[in-house]
């Protein structure tokens, strides 16, 4: 099986587990729902990757030592089991192949009944670049993934469609922003650039980047904090779908770094990139430090 297909299979497998956790626990205790979802999706992905790609390193949001410490301290329900730890950092940094995974992105939205803006991210970094990636949107019945012939979107009905980012309509730009932490500078950016801007609040970095690739919005702009796992898989799919994906200063997105913080990102159609990058530069005094 190709790495593309494996990424999609695992993201969908974790997605099915997460839908089951929602069914099983309901929405009365959001903390328990989030913790159980994070842990079960993480354990499934760690076990499957260890079994099917035993020589590869893994960096998971939930496999960090800090998460284990928090759970060991008994933070919230579902905290009894310590999560399987990530590959040791020194080993990961020397590895040629590293899976970068976010078992549940948009954790808050996952815990809110009726919301479908949450995702599972499975990416493969290989020799300095993103080599494969899949973003499952379980509550939307869709998976966006890389492929040998370019990105595709699969529906749970079984249909597969090529995925190409589309050009925005002239004069108007819909920019996806965080629902709960919209960076202030994006409002300034909206006022500074020529096209009329609509800010569209959506949860989850993966769901926002998917919305760009599916033509539901035209761009995703974020700054002020995020980690490699929040963007690796969606950026892999975005690049494969012909989108522009970079830091907000235009620099490339670098993964498998010593420090997994990757605090800002811009994803859009290439025709919008210079307008947005110039606009962001013009309001850079408002960028979070
Ligand atoms: N300022 C910040 N610092 C750290 N992480 C942030 C962040 N803003 C957003 N994120 C992370 O990026 C993901 C998408 O956020 P949002 O829905 O607000 O756009 C979330 O991942 P998780 O849900 O995996 O924790 C969230 O934790
Ligand atoms: Mg995340």
From TrEMBL:
Q: Mind telling me which InterPro entries this protein's record contains?
A: CysQ/Inositol_MonoPase, Inositol_monoP_metal-BS, Inositol_monophosphatase-like, Inositol_monophosphatase_CS
Please provide the Gene Ontology terms (biological process) for this protein. 3'-phosphoadenosine 5'-phosphosulfate metabolic process; phosphatidylinositol phosphate biosynthetic process; sulfate assimilation
Q: What is its EC number?
A: 3.1.3.25
Can you tell me which residues bind Mg(2+)? 61, 102, 104-105, 230
Enzymatic class: hydrolase
Designated name of the protein: inositol-phosphate phosphatase
Question: Which Pfam families would you find in this protein's record?
Answer: Inositol_P (PF00459)
Q: What are its cofactors?
A: Mg(2+)
Q: Which reaction does it catalyse?
A: a myo-inositol phosphate + H2O = myo-inositol + phosphate; adenosine 3',5'-bisphosphate + H2O = AMP + phosphate
Q: Which UniProt keywords apply?
A: Magnesium, Metal-binding
Keyword check for Magnesium, yes or no: yes
Q: Which GO terms describe its molecular function?
A: 3'(2'),5'-bisphosphate nucleotidase activity; inositol monophosphate phosphatase activity; metal ion binding
PROSITE patterns per the record? IMP_1 (PS00629), IMP_2 (PS00630)
């Amino acid at each position: 099986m190709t790495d593309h297909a494996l990424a999609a299979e695992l993201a969908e497998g974790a997605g099915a587990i997460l839908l089951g956790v929602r069914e099983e626990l309901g929405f009365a205790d959001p903390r328990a729902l989030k913790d159980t979802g994070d842990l079960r999706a993480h354990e499934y992905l760690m076990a499957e990757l260890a079994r099917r790609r035993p020589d590869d390193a893994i960096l998971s949001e939930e496999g960090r030592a800090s998460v284990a410490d928090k759970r060991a301290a008994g933070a919230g329900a579902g905290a009894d089991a310590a999560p399987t730890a990530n590959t040791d950092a020194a080993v990961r940094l020397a590895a040629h192949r590293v899976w970068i995974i976010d078992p549940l992105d948009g954790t808050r939205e996952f815990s809110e009944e009726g919301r479908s803006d949450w995702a599972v991210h499975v990416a493969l970094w290989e020799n300095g670049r993103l080599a494969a990636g899949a973003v499952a949107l379980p509550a939307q019945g869709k998976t966006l993934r890389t492929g040998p012939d370019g990105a595709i979107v699969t529906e749970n009905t079984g249909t597969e469609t090529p995925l190409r980012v589309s050009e925005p309509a002239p004069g108007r730009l819909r920019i996806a922003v965080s629902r709960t932490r919209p960076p202030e500078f994006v409002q300034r950016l909206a006022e500074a650039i020529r096209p009329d801007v609509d800010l569209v609040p959506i949860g989850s970095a993966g769901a926002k980047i998917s919305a760009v690739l599916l033509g539901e919005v035209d761009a995703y702009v974020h700054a002020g904090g995020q980690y490699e796992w929040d963007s690796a898989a969606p950026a892999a799919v975005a690049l494969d779908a012909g989108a522009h994906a970079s830091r907000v200063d235009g620099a490339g997105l670098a993964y498998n770094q010593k420090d997994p913080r990757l605090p800002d990102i811009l994803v859009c159609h290439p025709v919008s990139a210079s307008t947005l990058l110039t606009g962001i530069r013009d309001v850079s005094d408002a960028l979070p430090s």
